[in-house]
Amino acid sequence: MQFNIPYFKLLDYGENSVLRNKKRLIVGLIIFCFYSVMESRPLHILFVFEYFPASSQAHIVNIMTGLIDRGHKISIFSFRNKDQVGCPNIEKYSLMNVVTYEKMPKKLPEYDIVFCQSASLGKKILEIKKLRIWLRHRKLVVCLRGHDITQNEVRNNPDMYRDLFKKTALFLPVCDYFKKLVVQFGCNINKVIVHHSAIDCSQFFFTARQKPENEMIHFVSVCRLVQKKGIDYALRAFNHVAEKYQNVHYTIVGDGPEVIYLKLLIKQLGLQDKVTLCGWRTQKEIVSILNKSHIFLLPSIRANEGDEEGIANALKEAMAMGLITIGSWHAGTSELIDHGVSGFLVHEKNVPELIETIEYILDNPEIWEPMELMARKKVEDEFETKQCVEKLEKLFYQLLGY
Questions:
Q1: Contact, 333 vs 300, CB < 8 A?
Q2: Per-domain residue ranges for the chain?
Q3: CATH superfamily of domain region 44-198+385-399
Q4: Taking every pair of C-alpha atoms in the chain, what is the biggest distance, in angstroms?
Q5: What residues have CB less than 8 Å from 10, skipping those under 6 apart?
Q6: How many CB atoms lie within 10 A of CB 338?
Q7: Which end of the chain is more exposed for a tag (fewer CB within 10 A), N or C?
Q8: What pLDDT does 173 receive?
Q9: Pairing state between β 139-144 and 248-253
């Protein structure tokens, strides 16, 4: 730790060197203890959501509960109630008791940090005059996700965030790809630090998988059914694979605006007996499905409106559990998957390359276990909740000058 206080000036240099050194040691210890106490001071952090709770927010809930475990106080403001089943930690930590909906209370508590979970939320609260004035004496932190910064609307009009860039103390993009974009749009690079969204590896137990000889080989995807997930490309590739390998099945977990299109595509390809669309599932149910599966598909693409994702948490969960994962050279995915080492990457919308990759995996079972072990290690080393919470805590203390 570096000290900016010139405490040596307090000493009497006319004394002998032994006494001077003792005084230096004593004063240094006093200052060290002072800073240590300040750094351990519990913070009050307000998390701002567009909606809460929702099953897709497990990674954010884990960050909140991790901060609670470290002694900090958490409050939640949400503009609306999603009315979805959230993750188990919401009930365990009584998070619904600290949620305020729709309107900020008239008297705002003394929050240390206001942590918006998207740029659109940061922009939204700055447009409320009362909050804008109040935020002059607070630290506003904004997480940057795919829909914030990759859509054509933003790319064509980067000035839309100019005010947010000025008023926000710290931006936390979920991948380095987003950091580069936001800096290109005019944000001060000194305000931008990559902070990956994380998973709790203890909730996703690892099992080394081998290629089944005479049993079903299970493919799986877990995601919102939106264009950028590339599930239609996964289906087209799987259709070709299913013609060559009879003992394969593909389960798609999730729901969204693409569901009708995907159902029609499954019927068109004649895959009704080979593909199951099972809708949303709880985290416990997803873990069970992943545990019975072997290969995880998520060939993400840039959507028509420009939307890209950072690093899909579903990929992290699959890797943590020991599935062979196939993603794409898309946005921040290569920051998670080391191609050919901890998983595979294919070019966006490239069905032949996806088919070739799947067939390579099926024809080379000797690569399975070493790759699965590397995938688990990658997630544990760089995307585990505990480390991410510790990093976030340090960033908040630094932001407050401790």
A1: yes
A2: 7-39, 44-198+385-399, 201-382
A3: Glycogen Phosphorylase B; (3.40.50.2000)
A4: 92
A5: 27
A6: 15
A7: N
A8: 97
A9: unpaired
